[in-house]
Write a structure and sequence with these properties.
CATH class: Alpha Beta
Strand order of the largest sheet: 3-2-1-4-6-5
Structural class: alpha/beta
Distance between the termini: 11 Å
Number of helices: 7
Strand content: 15-25%
Radius of gyration: 14 Å
Amino acid sequence: MRAVFDSNIFISALVIPGSKAEKAIARIIEGKDRLVLSKAIIDEILFVLARKFSRDREAISRAAVYLSALGETNQPTKKIKVLTDDPDNRILECAQAGKADIIVTGDTEMLKLKEFHGIRIISLKEYLTS
């Protein structure tokens, strides 16, 4: 299954050892699912790690390399404006361009969509129990 994770999943996995988000990343590492990323998602994660969690340049650089190696990175060409929060629209763009099967998120506005162009939108809990 091809999956796009909301940036908050990555941030939780990188900041909270043993979290449910870290278990989701483990599924990717184990090869149970394929991760689809975009430069915009990686940039958002790195920005939040630097700004909200005061990670230094070396930590940010390691995170960038880790994320790039974790999945397949695509470059969406079509801009989408469905959700209020613009970074959430980048998630939808990545999922559509990367032909994802699912989007995994904790964002309530995104979860309310339930589906976007045939791509299921599910919670982290639902992902871990599937």
